[in-house]
Design goal:
The protein is α+β, with helices and mostly antiparallel strands. The chain has one domain: Cytidine Deaminase, domain 2 (3-Layer(aba) Sandwich), CATH 3.40.140.10. Helices cover about 30% and strands about 20% of the residues. Strands 2-1-3-4-5 form a 5-stranded mixed sheet. The chain is globular and about 45 Å long. The termini are far apart. About 5% of the residues have low confidence. It binds tetrahydrodeoxyuridine (THU). Tetrahydrodeoxyuridine binds next to helix 3.
Length: about 150
């Protein structure tokens, strides 16, 4: 599948194999089909790969009380963590845009960062092209669990 590689992030992170990338890309696209987004009409899907090879997917789930809506990335994280998984290799995110990559919001970046800075996030466009970023790149100088251990 066609994709762009942003060299710096490739150098810093070995990433996952091409088959696993394809698996994650397909899983986030499928998850997007279940998005419950009657208000924004902006479906998002996410797929999360654990270090032991399991895939947890999620979609955005909106609510008539707007602030209670949850993003796809956090849905996937909640599903994985609530089933005992806290070590992740990668996440892929999908939206319907042909022009721009699906990017995690700031709140999701912080939630993902809780589980490490050195894992990979694949940001995709509707045509399946993607770029790969580490969490460190998406959320530089981040605050995390380690910061609570320094005093
Ligand atoms: N959304 C996500 O699911 N993930 C993001 O990182 C960006 C935004 C959802 C939230 C809301 O349901 C809709 O997209 C429009 O903001």
């Amino acid at each position: 599948m066609a994709h762009e590689r942003h060299g710096a992030s490739r150098l810093r992170s070995p990433g996952i194999g091409p088959e696993q990338v394809e698996l994650l890309l397909a899983a986030c696209r499928e998850a997007k089909e279940f998005a419950y987004c009657p208000y924004s009409k902006y479906p998002v899907g996410a797929a999360l790969l654990t270090t032991d090879g399991k895939v947890y997917s999620g979609c955005n789930v909106e609510n008539a009380c707007y602030p209670l809506g949850v993003c796809a990335e956090r849905t996937a994280i909640q599903k994985a963590v609530s089933e005992g998984h806290t070590k992740f290799r990668a996440m892929a995110i999908s939206c319907n845009s042909r022009e721009s990559y699906a990017v995690p919001c700031g709140a999701c970046r912080q939630v993902l960062r809780e589980f490490g800075k050195h894992w990979d996030i694949y940001l995709t466009k509707a045509d399946g092209t993607y770029i790969q970023k580490t969490l460190e790149e998406l959320l530089p100088l981040s605050f995390g669990p380690e910061d609570l251990k320094t005093f």
